[in-house]
Structures are given as structure tokens and as C-alpha cells.
Amino acid sequence: MTTAYETLMAYVRDTEALGQVAGRLGWDQETVMPDGALDQRAEEHGAMAGVLHARRTSPVIAEGLAAVQTTDPVALAQLHHIRRSHDRATKVPASLAGAIARETSRAHRIWAQARAEEDVAAFLPALSRVLDLKREEAQAIAGGADPYDAMLDDFEPGATGAQLTAMFGAMRPRLVALRDRVRQAPPAPQLQGTFPEDGQMALTRELAAAFGYDLNRGRIDKAVHPFSSGSGLDVRITTRTSADDPFNCFYSTIHEVGHACYEQNIDRAYLLTPLGAGVSMGVHESQSRIYENQLGRSRAFTGWLYGRMRDTFGDVGIASEDDFHACVNRIGDGFIRTEADEVQYNLHVLLRFDLERALVSSDLAVADLEGAWNERFVRDFGFSVDRPSHGVLQDVHWSEGLFGYFPTYSLGNVYAGCLHAALRDAVPDLDADLARGDTSRATGWLRDSVQRHGGLHAPRDVIAQAAGGAPTEGPLLDYLEQKFGAIYGV
Amino acid sequence: MTTAYETLMAYVRDTEALGQVAGRLGWDQETVMPDGALDQRAEEHGAMAGVLHARRTSPVIAEGLAAVQTTDPVALAQLHHIRRSHDRATKVPASLAGAIARETSRAHRIWAQARAEEDVAAFLPALSRVLDLKREEAQAIAGGADPYDAMLDDFEPGATGAQLTAMFGAMRPRLVALRDRVRQAPPAPQLQGTFPEDGQMALTRELAAAFGYDLNRGRIDKAVHPFSSGSGLDVRITTRTSADDPFNCFYSTIHEVGHACYEQNIDRAYLLTPLGAGVSMGVHESQSRIYENQLGRSRAFTGWLYGRMRDTFGDVGIASEDDFHACVNRIGDGFIRTEADEVQYNLHVLLRFDLERALVSSDLAVADLEGAWNERFVRDFGFSVDRPSHGVLQDVHWSEGLFGYFPTYSLGNVYAGCLHAALRDAVPDLDADLARGDTSRATGWLRDSVQRHGGLHAPRDVIAQAAGGAPTEGPLLDYLEQKFGAIYGV
């Protein structure tokens, strides 16, 4: 290891530490910040962003990259990430980055108001400006290549729109067909009872611990939206409680615990380096979704949870473990992606992916977006959007310029499907553990196969190594058809 | 106003915003940080300190200062602070600053262990190293001038050791004499009863609001040590509860509210500029102490508090408002500065001031410190130190290199005495308000006379303008003799 490498890494380590500080500002804002601090907080965010951008584009990085000579695979992986971040930051002119920051901040406010007022037309001009700026940014990064791929690369390095189109195209008919079959079956039972907040929070802490979240290096707070924040030794999650829907609290916690455990379980040697964080949004989502769904919503684990819920809340209006499993996995009509069940969730994502790809390529005009959304929705879901806040205005992403983000949700589900199949092969008697509320062999396998590597391998590679083959949509679809076929008898 | 000024101020404003972010890391660490995050947090602190130091010594500052031409008094005051901070940061070599950071961090750990083990000898070598480094730093800043004055200037710009020696020399005999008289009188009554934590926290929030703390731009959390953190729109305080001593909670809250209101009430035009923070530790302490003591422990206000405590906790074992006032202002023997009453508090400070000044000038050897402490203590307090943790090892300050900090506590009390006399002249019927728990005319006068100016005037000047004359120790001593003479009949 050369001195040039150590010098470069010391600089990068400080930048990563500053990145953690900047990220924690976001946690603070969503959990504990006084309302009246908002204007000052914007200045603080801006100042931190300026510091981080200056460091990522610093000549120290370019000189370090030029000077380092190494064949060490970990060092090479670090350099790959450092170069990637430096290239990206230097290719985007400061004036464009500033314009994007201003326009997305503005568009976010306009979107929130337009959604509250069910006024699509009020949002579209702002969306057009954001789209134009993000396209310009993608062209600055990608040159003549497909700008959508450059956007996607921000969230899922190496993925392409063409590859995802093929994968999602294979998923859609099987998902629509499964949804159609389930819709014709009798509905699953629903919870009854009262679920006091302190009981929800006590059980949600128990669930977090059961899935391996280390509260000595994390904490659980309440926030409007559940999220996971931070890397390394300080990874915090949030949850929320809803008086008549304890599953909202429990499963959003398990989901965020999946994200948080990924960050907590990365090799300690990578702390505060580019390898010390989850490698992509898709791989991140694979961890949150396998914790939440393949493990947390399994027949075996829900059998244990059924007992813990009755211990905590008394009668919950469900007669058996099988009924409870069906209840946890209940499928119903709904407009909202974030509230969707395992089967329909991906249909929500696929719709957004196709529309945003068409927006970026200009195959779809912004003016025609709502119509395209509503037409696609009725085709895939079998009923019509009743208002914009249930349709094209429901998600925050586009207002913030996050084109290329949506598909990583479904890619994460596909990855989770592959990992789950491999996990079941590796631990054939896993259900005996899960039925006792013991996830340790499952989460231990994920830690050793995926999480500990952090950013060492490319996203597809880490999944392929863990799953024993290139990721495909097959295992996810097989799992969904088997699971929901059994629950609904279809 | 020239463009050069605006350019400079934009740079400085970002630095101030980053300073707020760095300060909030400290708040986070003391209130919500998971224990296991400590190692990472040290890296984050270090990275933020590096960024701030680089900005304070940046050529942007030197060039800006050279280019700006202005006669505007506010701009001149900003430039004064910018120049002062830049001069100080550039005069201290990076290697020395680094050595101080490392040695104080190390000495702090050694001190904590030495205090736990009552082992003075284990701490003295570390103290010697810190003292040598801080002396070297003071010489780098002050050149041939008295190094103690350079240290003091860090906390109380413009104050000198000689000036404080004269002031404190005049205070000491009158304080010792008052303490002697009170010690011979029958003791004040003590609280009886139980004081559940939720009642303490509810009443402490009511007290914070009663003293004008704006919770829309702040928050109250629990921490091991009470403190106030932040400036501008996000000023947070902490408190603590002790089952049998609710006054600890209430009066530490009122004290921190004094600090916090100073920061909250600074002219909004100074937000995130060098004028947007309290001008010195002494002026800061004058606000916390006048809130806590001259107002919060007054006969009128404690009459109101007596009723609120009985509403909250039932019988508190005190028969009358007069007895309650005596109870709140109870004087007793004690070793610990932070637990001392109004009379003896300054004797604790004066002892430390004389000893640290002698240490810095080398008139006192580190090896002789404990003996000097114990000898002085028995002379001023009338009884002997029984163990090092009750004597020379009780405070954290010296281990952290904070020489010159202690005297600002007593200077703050002196300032509070001057302000209180002027306030009583300005609002002769103030007690009628305080007896209703209404501090608005008192805190409003302090806001308008002192707090709103932030860093606009030099510390002594802002007190002199508010009090109508140069600050002296007389009003504080008159107030103490009158108040405790009445309570104890001496």
C-alpha cells in the first residue's frame, strides 16, 4: 500500500465522515428539529452540500487517483468508487447543480400543494423544468449515451433501462394474472381490536431486535415517514403508529431494519470509506424486502407474531395462525404504492418505470402524463384512478428529480426473490427457527453473503455470488404464485 | 455596502452555518446518540473541526478583509469578529492545534479516571502537558503579553487578569463575611415529599415558557449535564431530574433558558453571522444567572412557584411562602461548585481563578496544586476538603485546557448584579409581575437592553449601556447581603 493511497484515503475518510454528519441533519429534521428552525436548516444543508461538493471535485482526489499504484482488490474497489464520485461531480457544472437544487426544492413545494388541491396542471410546468434539468445533467455525465441509463446509474450502478425493460416485461403478465386470480377469491380476514401505541412500540422494538438490529449502534424514533439513516456505527430508523393498523408499524419497522442491518453489518474495516455503505438502492431494497416479506410475512414467522400480538393486545379477532398469515398478507384494491401488498407493489413500480422512461426519452409529453398513468392503471389493476392524489400526484420522487429511482424498488424485490431461494437451499429447516421468532440463521446468512461486503462488489455481482447465479425475476414470481396461491386457494 | 463585503459575508455565513451543524453534533451526542457510535462520532467531530479551521484561516477571509471599505457600524462589528477569529486561527500553528486536541482529549480521559479513583498524582502529568501546550498557544497569539490574558480573551474579549484580580479581591472579604454570618444562623427549611419525574418535567416546561423560551425554535431534552446549545432559530436546552431534588431540575432549566433566550433574542438580521451569537461567556452567564437567581429565586417569583409546586406535587413540607423562599435559597456547607448557593458560588470561582492564574504564570507548580487548593478552601469555606473528587479533581475544565473560563462565571454574576439593579430602577413594580409568574417585563427589558445586540458591542460596553455605568461588583454584593441578611436575619 503506497503513501499516496493512504493520503487519498485519509481525505476521503474525512469526506465520508462529513457525509454522515450531513445525513444526520436529515434525521434530525424529521424527528427532533423544532418547526421554527426550518429556514436556518436550509442554510445548514446548503453549506454542508457545498463542502461535500468541493471535496468530491477537489484536485486532491484527481492527484491521488493519478498517483496511486495498487493491485489490492479492496484498494481497487475503493478507487473505483472514488473515481466514480469524482467523475460525476466534476462533469456536472456547478451552475447546473445549483439550478437543479433550486428547481427541485421549488417543484417539491409546488407538488405538495398540487397534491393537496388535486391540481395536476399546477404541477406540470415545474415537472417540465425539473425533467429538462435532469436530462441536461444526465447528458453532461453520459455524453451521447441514453440519459435514462445515466440517471439509473445514480441509484443502481451498472443497470440499464433496456435490461430492466426486459425483466419487468417478463414480470408484468404473471403479476397481472396472479392479481386477477386473487381478486376473484374471497377476501382474507382483517384484524379486530385496539392496539395502544405503547404496545405497538414495545412490540416493534422486540421485532427490531429479533431481526438483528443493534440498538447499541442505532435508535428507533417516530416520524411521519419511516426511514433508515446513516452508515457504520450510527444507523437510526424511524417508524410510525396507527391506532387501528399495527401492521403498518411492525412491517415498516422490519423493512427499515433490513436497510439498517445492511449498513450495520458491513465489514468494520470499511468504516467511513466508500465501501462502508450499501452498494446500490436495489441491493438495499433486497435486504429490506426479504426481511419484511420473505421472512417477516412468512407462514412460520407470522405464527410466532400471532402469539406475541395476542400476548400484547389480547384478542385480535383472528381465529388461527393460518388466518393470521392470510390477514398479514391480505390483498385488496388500492391506489397507493406505499400501501400495496407484495403482489401489486411491483405493478405500481412497473407503471412508473415505463412512464418515466418515456418522459426522459420524450416519447411521452409531460402534458400527456396523467392520461397515460390513468390508462395504464386501469389496465394493470382492474379499476380506475379516482383523483390525482391517488394517481400521478401520489409520489414525491419526480418533483425531487429522482428519475431512475423507482425501478430499484422492483429490482430489489427480484434480488430478494433470488436470495430467498438460495437461503432456503442453504438452511432447509429455516421455518423451525422462524416459528420461534428466531431469524438468526436467516439474517446471519444474509450478513455473510451480502451485507458484510458493502461496496466491494458491483450490485449484480454481489447478488449473483450470494444466489449462485445471475439474478432473474423467476424466483420472485414463483414465490409469489406459490405463496398467494396457497393463501387464496387460486 | 461593497460587493467585497457581500462576498466575504456569504463565505462567513456558510462557515457560521457549519458551526451550527458542528455544535449540534455535541447536542446529539449528549442526548440521543447511541453509545456504540462514539468512535465514529470522534471522526465526525474531527472532520468538522478541520473544515471549520480551514475556512477560518482561508485566504478568502484575508483577501475579503483587505478589500472591504465600509463605515457602517454593523459591518464594522462583523469585520471585527471576522478579523479576530482569523487572526487567532492563523497564529496558532496547525501542529500545535493538533497537539492540543490530542492532549486535551487524552487528559480528559485520565482526569475522569483519576477522579473516580481519587488519585491526584495520576492526573498531574497530563495536566502539566496540557498547561504547557496552552501556554505555548497563548504565547503564539499574544506575543510577549501576559499569556493568561490571551487565554481569558478566548472567553471574555477585552477582560484582563489584572482587572479581574482587583474586582474579585474586593468581593472575597465581603462574601466570606456574609458566609460566616449565615453559617451561624439556624439553617433554612428543606423540601419534603415525593416529586415524580413527569411532574418535574411538566413544571420545568412551564417554567421555561414563563421565562420566554420559544419552544417553536427550541426543545428540552434530558441529559446528564444541563446545557444550552445552538444559536438563531435552533437553540436547544437540556435538563435533568432527581427524585428528591426538584429544584435541581427547575433552576438548571431556568439557568439554561437564560442562555437560550440570549441566543434566541438576537436581532434576526444577524442570523448566521458573527454578530448572531452571545458576545462572551460573561455576558452569557449574566443572562443565565439573572434568570435563575435575581428573578427565579426572588421572594416574589418563589411565592408563585410555591403554589405551582403544591398544585403539582401536593404538600411539599413547607409552611409558608417565606419559608419556601428560604428553602429555595438554602445555604449549606458543600464542596462542589456546581451545587453551590449564590453566596458561596463565587468563592468557589475565585479560588479557581487565583490558582489557575498562578499555574499559568508558573508561580504555582502543578505538583503543589492540591495543597494550595485545600489550604485556600479551608480559609474561605471554614471546613476541609475530604477527598480529591470534592476538591482539585472536581471540575472538568483544566483537563480540557479551559484556562480562563472559570472567572467568566463570577464576572457573569457581577454583570447580573448590575443589570438587576438597573432593571429594578426601570421597572419599580416588577415584583407584582413576578408574584404572578409573569417575567415578561423583566425578560423583555433584558432582551431589549442586552440580548438583541448579539455581538454588536464589546462585552463590558453592552453591560455598561444597559446598566447605565461601568460594571462593578458593588450591586451584586449589596443584593446578596440584603437578600441573605433578610432570609437568615443576619
Automatic annotation (TrEMBL), chains A, B:
The alphabetized list of GO BP terms reads: proteolysis
Its UniProt entry gives the catalysed reaction(s) as:
Release of a C-terminal amino acid with broad specificity, except for -Pro
Q: Read off the CDD domains from this record.
A: M32_Taq
Q: Which UniProt keywords apply?
A: Carboxypeptidase, Hydrolase, Metal-binding, Metalloprotease, Protease, Zinc
Query: Which InterPro entries would you find in this protein's record?
Result: Peptidase_M32_Taq
- Which residues hold Zn(2+)? 255, 259, 285
Protein name as catalogued: Metal-dependent carboxypeptidase
Function, as annotated, reads:
Broad specificity carboxypetidase that releases amino acids sequentially from the C-terminus, including neutral, aromatic, polar and basic residues.
Acyltransferase keyword on record = no
Tell me the Pfam families matching this sequence.
Peptidase_M32 (PF02074)
Specify the taxonomic lineage. Bacteria, Pseudomonadati, Pseudomonadota, Alphaproteobacteria, Rhodobacterales
Q: Which cofactor does it need?
A: Zn(2+)
Q: Domain of life here?
A: Bacteria
| Family per similarity comment | Belongs to the peptidase M32 family.
Q: What is its EC number?
A: 3.4.17.19
Q: Please share the entry's free-text remark on the cofactor.
A: Binds 1 zinc ion per subunit.
Active site feature: 256 (proton donor/acceptor)
State the Gene Ontology terms under molecular function. metal ion binding; metallocarboxypeptidase activity
Concerning SUPFAM superfamilies, the annotation shows:
Metalloproteases ('zincins'), catalytic domain
Q: Is Protease one of the keywords?
A: yes
